[in-house]
Amino acid sequence: MPIQFSHAIVRGEIANEIPGLITGRIWLVGRELPVLFQLRGIPEADVLARTLTFTNLHPEHEHEATMLAPLQQGSLAHFTSSHKVSITAEDGETHITNCLHFAWDSDANGAVFIETDQFEIHFSEPHWDPENPPEILEPIDQDASGETTLFDESDFLDNDENDFDDETPLNEFEWELELREADKQVDAYQAALEQFHEHADESKVLETVLGLDTLIDPDADTAPLQFDALPADANASDHRHHFLTRRALDLAVTIQTSGERSHVLSLEAGETAPGDNPVLQLAAATIQVGGKLAAALDGLAHGAEPEEGFVIAMLKRSLVPLNLALDASAHAIQHHHKRPNVYAWLSGARDELFDLRKDIIDLMEELRAVL
Q1: Which end of the chain is more exposed for a tag (fewer CB within 10 A), N or C?
Q2: pTM of the predicted structure, to 2 decimals
């Protein structure tokens, strides 16, 4: 049976900042931390490309709301602020009014929906132009590696109209396809290498299995790569990393050192694997964010000029571990809420993750404006 609630909502924000992706937070009565949303789907036209913020002036406890998992992932069913409902007034007259209707299919809770005409609602300016959307505006998918993608691969394959001109920079969605295909090749090579790494003629076998002409070109220039040395007085971190990368990596170090001082990184009773410890999950996911951002942005820090579409596609990939880090931080805060010092630095880390996420999305929007 679907879960329906609205009275327990204190306030919330639901955003369509990225085509095909619905994100946001909703604060509930009796829960200190907000419920996080990451849903695949396209909302109705009135909220398309916008952030919707809403406030309930008279929140009250509601049992159904206590059933929600702290992270709501899944697919959007319906999202609009202009859903028509029939209301009977105190004088007995019936009239039609608009209401907020937000429904989704949750991986954790199944069908869930919110429907109310009692909230104060505000809209942001569009994050992207609904009248001139990106070429592909399809619900987000996740491939086997868990990476978020915003396209259907069949939209590109075996279609002469979508042949890419070598002289034309790829857009973000075309780069996602390229990256996804590269992931498949790496996975195939890794699987073959694990199977045949002890074979007497390993290279030839791998060439045959993977359908490669040659793994190593015998005529290729095999001279070692040359790298420019950093100045002797240079701060290596400043020269190697984009400022967003540094923020993520610095945060990961802070979580690691704070966790060690607080003795919350070791497995506790009942925990049998690192995945059982939310602080370890938080640290690991934040490190992944730093790695994804380095791949996306550190070329810019070195003065390179990668295609904007490539950078946007790589930045999207950084949001996957970032959302995992936010989820882990919520669990960690709930687990250690009775320890004020631990609660304080975990809350600070969570705030920094939200700020970092906003700055990543803002940068993506800046790059889209250039395309």
Answers
A1: N
A2: 0.53
